[in-house]
Amino acid sequence: MSAVRVSTLAVPQYAARLRTVIDASEPLLVVLPDAQTMRRPAPEKWSPREVIGHLIDSASNNHQRFVRATSQDDLIFPGYEQDRWVELQAYQHAPWTELVSLWAGFNRHLSRVMTAIPDEARTRLRARHNLHEIAWRELPAGEPATLDYFMNDYVDHLEHHLRQVLGQTWKGVGLI
Length: 176
Description:
With 176 residues, this protein is mainly alpha-helical. It has one domain (10-166): Four Helix Bundle (Hemerythrin (Met), subunit A), CATH 1.20.120.450. The protein has eight helices and no strands. It has helices spanning 13-30, 34-38, 48-69, 82-88, 96-116, 119-123, 131-134, 147-166. α3 (48-69) crosses α4. The termini are far apart.
């Protein structure tokens, strides 16, 4: 088995953007007042702690999806009950700095994973997918999809949720 040297691989734009987003937002997140991280904007909406918890769950699920996609001919993956996962893991009561640290570390790892996946696996068109069910920006079932699309969508989703936590004035680094 050959070792992949990530440092010599071309970095996909979305992997670099993910790294930049983490580096830009982590210092802003860790200094949020504790009370603010527990405040829900509405009874049925997530608090910042729950949003970051959801992003940890998203990283966990998508990590497996990205790696599995390299050895399958489709992009069909299980979904998960996002609200239930957030509630079950009690993110609302978890220490804020621990959540931010886990989120940042996991996403730095995902940036490396995105870079390590061979171009052929990232850019290969897959006729079968369920991105119309699991992607943030749904792709019609009849339209071929690539892992590149799905990984870029992951970063867009992450930035969307960071705006919920940091406010609409936080521009991030993406184009959304």
